[in-house]
Design a protein that fits this description.
five-stranded mixed sheet
């Protein structure tokens, strides 16, 4: 399986870094690296994350990385990283594109 980041997920990483960098630049860089590498384990274990039934029939799942939720979708031959945000953020269960 191949990991592919959607534009929205990549923008989430950039936004997170820009938000944290003024306060703690080294910590911001370290966190973004950790979050960017987190999906690597999904290559071997794509169904590791909790399945989100609200997205049926799509296979959308989530993993928690520290205080962050990472949503992804499994498709034939690929895992698409959909979105990433802090768990304290109020996010609806509307389907991701």
């Amino acid at each position: 399986m191949k990991i592919q980041w959607t534009g929205k997920a990549a923008s989430d990483l950039v936004r997170l870094h820009e938000h944290l960098r003024p306060v703690a630049p080294e910590a911001a860089a370290r966190l973004v690296r950790q979050l960017a590498r987190a999906p690597d384990k999904l290559v071997d274990f794509p169904r590791l994350g909790e399945k989100l039934e609200a997205f049926e029939p799509r296979e959308v799942r989530r993993i928690i990385v520290g205080n962050y939720e990472l949503r992804y979708e499994i498709e034939t031959g690929a895992i698409f990283i959909l979105r990433l945000w802090h768990c304290r953020q109020n996010r609806s269960l509307e389907p991701e594109n």
